[in-house]
Amino acid sequence: MLTLPGRIGIGLGLMDVGTGDNGRIRAEPCLSCFLCGGDGDYIHLEQADRLFGASGSWNFKKCRNQKCGLIWLDPMPWKEDIGKAYANYYTHSALGRGIRDGWARRAFKVMKRGYHMCKYGYGKSFESLGLRCAGSLLYLFPIRRREVEEEVRMLHAVPQGLLLDVGCGSGEWLESMRERGWRVVGVDFDQTAVNFARQAELDVRCGSLEEQDFAEGSFDAVTLNHVIEHVPDPLRTIAECARILKPAGKLIMFTPNGSSLGHWMFKRDWRGLEPPRHLQIFTIQSLVQILRRAGFQKVTVRPQIAKSVIYESFLLWRGTSGRLGTSHRNWPAWVFARLFTLLELCLCRAMPGVADCIGIVAVKE
Hints:
Radius of gyration: 21 Å
CATH architecture of the largest domain: 3-Layer(aba) Sandwich
Structural class: alpha/beta
């Protein structure tokens, strides 16, 4: 017999999974899949937040429907308390600003600039042949090339196009896209992160996407980079993205892949779980389903390798607790992550479901 952690109020449907009044995150049972209504089986029990120290003990369920496969938290945090899970989150700082470039970083920037110009149209078409050649060198380094593509989130240049980043954090990516010619707007529910973004003179709003009430057909592109797994109602959020996009506008999403090879290998130590902030973890099938339900019929799936996910999964497996991603590199984890992502890169050509991240390009018709 399975015993759930915490205190369960059967009559009220309330679970107290916290420890202490100030940081306590109230939660309630979530017995079935929100997407297909199917039953689920518990796959990971009594998970603590080993990354950012949120309170509570959390369980994950997986939908029994093989055409869905959605993974979700049971218990599920109350919408009103989700913000407590972000008290120490990494968006509370301006991570990339003020870093000085050495010669290697400068050379790599030239290669990226050439690649972005040739493939995505960023830059002037008459720029030097040397810059184009520098960009082509990235084809020799497939992992770095994938990372460079993710820097623009597979978005082709739209001169003076209007771009919305949902869950923009402290705004570093929006700054980079503004430099590439986009007009940019951001949304994040974390007021501390929003304050950092506004210091860079970015137009960033605080709250949920739905609360902003943007005009219909406003944006050329909307991006959600590892955001959809955080929102309480993914269908409502994606439907709102469809409403505010212009015809032929693009929705770009990245999210952890619950059916990935990394999840299979690391199980409860897989970095993509991240309880209690990741409320639902999608598979390719479940993500395509929700996009079609929200009104997107033209959907392209682009599996993405995720070196950082494997690196940090390795650290969790080795027993590292607390916030990851420090400046000190763990060399065994780094070597393992490089080799693992090379393997994934080869496998996902024939088996896209093994990749640790799902990339989606959905076009509004």
